[in-house]
Each structure stands twice: as C-alpha cells, then as structure tokens.
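Running this now, will post back.
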Amino acid sequence: MFRPNETHRQQDIFGIESQLRPDLRKRLRESKEYAFYERVFSRIPEGHFADLYKDTPASRPNTPVNVLVGAMILQHLNDWTFEELLDRVDFDVKVRAALGLWSLDQETFCRATLFNFQARLRDDMALTGRDKFQAVFDGLTEADQKEFKLDRTIQRCDSTQIGSNIRAYTRIELLVEVALRMWRVLAKTHQEEHRERFAAYVEAKTSGQFLYRMRKSDIDQTLEQLGRLYAWMAEALEAGYGSTEIHGIVRRVFAEQFTRTDDKITVRPAEQMGSDGLQSPDDLDATYHKKDEEAYHGFVLHATETAAPENPFQLIVDVAVAPNNQADGAILNERLPEMQRKTPELRELHHDAGYGSEDNDRLEVEYGIEAVQTAIRGRTSQAPMRIDRDEAGLLHVQCAAGHAVPGQPAKKYLKAVFAAANCAACPFAAVCAARPLARGRRAFYFTEDDVVKQARHHRIETLPEERRTLRANVEATVKEFKAPCRHGKLRTRGLSAASRYGFLRAIAINFGRVYRHLQRRASASSPTPAPAAPATRRLPSPGPLRRLLQPVRRRLWAYSGNRIAPPAVLAWTT
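Update: finished.
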C-alpha cells in the first residue's frame, strides 16, 4: 500500500540536530547534504511511484519512496557502491540528514527493499516504455530553471557510449555459453538422456576453456555442430522449457546466427550479422557499435543542456538512453518533440556533424529552431556551391569561382543558371556540380532541403564570436556522465538500469552545479571581515613583587568597605 512520507518535515525534539553542539549544528546546516535535503529530497514527487504498490488496505505500508529515490541519487552523486550506500545511510549523520532521517533510531531500508524497488521500476519500464525517474528529473530541473531564471533559448547537445557490465564474447564463446546455460536448467533425467549432445561443451566447463582448446582449423566444423545443436534445442526442448528465459535466448540466437533451408542448417556469414544481435545472455538489450576502431557493447547516452552565455550556470534539461546502434541524428529526431514540449522557447541548438539530417532539418524548421553545426560530416566537394537566402526570402547561389546568380524554380527542383562567360575558362569546370547546358551555360539543381542543410552548415559563421564555441563545453558534461564508469562500463546491465543511471546521474550533476552556484553567491554577498584590532600590551607579571603588594591589596579591601576591588587591581595584586 502506497503512503507518502511527510514525517521528515517535523523533527523530533530528541533528533540529530538537538543533540549537536551549536557549532556542529551550524556546520550541518551549511553542508552539501543539508542542501540536498532542501533542494532535492524535499521536492521528490512520491506520487509518481504510487502505482508500483498494491492499493489494498491489507498490504503493508511501503518504505518511504523519497528515502529510496534520494538514496539512489546520493549513490550516483558520490559514486558509491551499494555496500557503501547502505553503510553511509546507517552511520553517517550528514547522509541521514540528507534523507530526512532526523532520528538515529529511525529505520531506513535493507538491501532487499532497495533491489525490490529497482525490480518494480524495471518491470514498469518494460510495461510502459517510460522511466519514472524522468518525471523526477524533469520536475527538479524545471523548478531550478524557474528559480534562477535561466535562459533556455540556446542549448547544446552531445552523446557518449556507455558500456553494459558484460563480458565481450566471441561468436563461438557466445554460442557455447548459451548452450551451457540451457544444459544447466535441464532436469537431471534430461541431462542423462542428452548428455552426449552436450558432452564436448560440458567437459570444457566454460565457454572460454572450450575456445582455448579449439584449433583454428576447427572453427567452421564447430559452428556447423553448434548449428545442429541449436536447431535441436529450439524444437525438442520447446515442450518442457519453452516458457523459460534461457530457451527464449536459445531461439533468438538460433534465428540470429543460423538459417534453415529445408533440413539443412547454414551458418550466417559475419557480414550478415546485425548490430542488434545478442551480445551476452546477461544483457538482452545491449547492442554493438564500432567507433574509431573501438568496439562498444551497450548503450548510448544523449544529453542536452542550456548554453546561453548570460546564465550564471548551465543545467541539463534533457536525457535519453538508447541502444548504441542508433545514430545521433535518429536519437535527436526522437527527442526534439519532447525538448520542444519542455522548453518551447528553444531557438538555437548547437551540435556536432553527427546530428545533422534532412529529417531533423524539417522538424527544426517546424519548431522554429536554428541548428548550429560545428563541422561538416563526410568529404567536402572540390567545387562547393553555396546557397544563401536573404532577408526577403530570395535565394542566391555562389559557385567555387565566386560567381553568384539568383536561384529560381524549375519543374521538379530549384536551379541556378551560370552564364557561359563565367564558365568558359573556369578552373573548376571539371569538378563543378553544375550541369552543362546549351550555349556554354551551366545549371545547378537543388532542393529546399539543400537550402536548409546549407543554412545549418554556414549558420555558425553568422554568430558572434563568443557563441561560435558554445558546443565545446557540452563535452565536459558527457565526461561527467562517464566519470563513474570503470573502463567505460556501468556497474549494471540492461536498458532499464542504463536509463535509470542516466536520469539519476543528471539529477546529481545538476544539483552539484546549483550548490556550487549558491556557495559562490553566498561568498560574494558575505561582508568582508573587519581587520583584527591590534593586541593590547599586557602588563608584566608581578612575580617576586607579589608579597610586597599584599598590604596594598588589604588596604584597598578595607577602603572599599569590604567590597570587591576593581578587577584590574585584583589581577595586578594577585
């Protein structure tokens, strides 16, 4: 049964703060963790997670959702393992304050509770296709943007590869590994019955050992034997094991790695294998991507942040995680409607050449967004044609030799016709994109998509100097996402876990930026401390004169009517 957690808003009279000395209480309230409690924990929308729990009075109340979510954000903010997270929550006073746990004897959660919560999130994402942490990220980011009045008209985006925590298998290793896992789930009677079919792989114990013992000349024969084994497993084991996860993996691998023609099983050539094929039986979502001669098994993370130079700091406003075999342009095409919904004032988007495409150009024109591309992808023409549209909407085409003519409509396309006098002795005639016409003229044909594409390529030239390098800083942002990854890999597996990582890490990065901005603002607004007054010179200690001054002290005592003498005199006479 879902129940929101509001107890943290009223502290116990015997809580943590009441037991601290005033100086420690002050330090706690000035700490990063206390700022986390105020700016993140207290704003977590618990209602978004209500449908993860049964709505029956007989069920037990849930562990506070904001405590679980806040703990997961802290984990990604500080790059803690689960062991470190649980240890901090139990024993660190500042971490407990960050989660609104104001009493030392207040129960938190155990490892099973946290993992069960993550399992609910995974199942919900598989059912709805939407990560619940996106709503948390969007709500927190929107609140910060409004509070600090950030300009969102200029933004920048980039992507990075994040690997799944899986082993990189060779083709034969993958086939043997899946076969061995199928063998392990067979009942003992079935293992005895079919031991001969699996004998070569079971004797090797692991797929790595099997590959280590195999000769290079045996590769083709081994693949054929595995093909026959997979065909048998897909059909013969369907009746008893068809509902198991591993048998579903067997069927998938058989369809991806082999083809059946009548009764013959053929091994698919490597060039016919898709990048979306199974990379590991431990992660059914991971895909394959090769970039700059380096292979990646996992996902791609796309992030967009504000970039207006006038902003005191920038915030990440959109995050998406997708299989890494998707192009950057395709991911941006899917994200543009969502980006437009969240930040309708977006007018200028800086990105690299990988995001440019005709589909994105059309969508950006529809939304009134001007794309600024920092480089041109692919080879450049030896004789480029430049197309510009003036303020009146008229087109002008300039060839590589510098001759400019107006653009005009044709039957199917737009065209620009160059005079014969300009083309006669042109040094670019052999490589010119314009087609020869009668009487020595040449015509260059283009489309409206080419006009928009050219505008994207050359828009950076029209910007002020200080806005031409805005995209570069987003590379530091994607490095912040990659920082906790060991050798480029997450600690988790699966698209759901990778998506959750993206949103939690983005919340942590944004909080860090807000906190540092508040610290700078507080330092700038605090008054400059006055110079310390020079130390007063103390009188020398009377030392050996003490006995001689005792009568003076007695007389002062008597003169004052047995009243205490002034402190300065007493200090000197004692």
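The two ends are 75 Å apart (CA to CA). More later if anyone needs it.
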